Amino acid sequence: MSSEGKVPFIHVGAFLVSELDPIIAFVNAKGFALTSHLSDIERSEMRAYMAMIDNILVNAELYLAWLDETVSSEVTRPRYGCPYPWPLNWILPLRKQSEVRARLSSNGWKDKNMKQVCEEVRICCQALSERLDQQQYFFGDKPTELDALVFGHLYTLITTELPVGQFADIIQQFSNLTNFCKHIEEEYFKD
Fold first, then answer.
1. Residue 6: pLDDT band by 50, 70, 90 thresholds?
2. Is residue 2 pLDDT above 70, yes or no?
3. What is the pTM assigned to this prediction?
4. Taking all residues of the chain, what is their mean pLDDT, rounded to a whole number?
5. Mitochondrial outer membrane transport complex Sam37/metaxin N-terminal domain: which residues (predicted)?
6. How far apart are CA 49 and CA 124, in angstroms?
């Protein structure tokens, strides 16, 4: 985690860059562009899919982590508070939960129930599955920022053990998405 508490992050020499868009800008400034093979229309389409992930998967993950009482009490609050001494280990998770509730309230997610949230996740996965189809990556044979973003979210949801597993169950209904995650893991993260 970065010094600001943000993920993802990269540490390159004297530089510590956190969050996806600043990382992309940093890497592009160094002469590496994952989207150079895309047309302007494809880049716009990629950004639309990234916005969908931010609007659906990120909110769904926040809902699950902080508003689902079982996950919040058994996993999220203890993990969030564990680096801090008492009473901060109780106060800071409650403050964070309040911040997340406010964010989800402002964008209409706080009043959803788990069934509605799961349906949003299913719709998002359906759109991603249709875009990926049988390709190796979302835009052909080369990875883009979208591939990194999708992998980060889906792989985490599939592999993190939680007391409830609805999101993982939904993702696993889309075999091309689970195969995509396996491919990325084997290609880039295996020794």
1. low
2. no
3. 0.87
4. 89
5. 1-97
6. 9
What kind and span of H or E run contains 16?
strand 15-18
**Measured between alpha carbons, how far is 87 from 90 in angstroms, rounded to an integer?**
6
120 CB-near residues (< 8 Å, 6+ apart): 56, 59, 60, 112
CA angle 138, 121, 49 (to 5 degrees): 35
Q: Which residues pair with 17 in a beta bridge?
A: 10
Amino acid found at 43: R
Neighbours of 124 (CB within 10 A): 22
- Sequence-distant (6+) residues with CB within 8 A of 96 are 66, 80
* pLDDT tens by residue, 22-61: 777 777 677 777 777 888 999 999 999 999 999 999 999 9
Closest of 148, 146, 168 to residue 157, by C-alpha: 168
Percent of the chain with pLDDT over 70: 94
Sequence letter at residue 45: E
Domain boundaries, the chain: 1-33, 38-189
CATH number given to 38-189: 1.20.1050
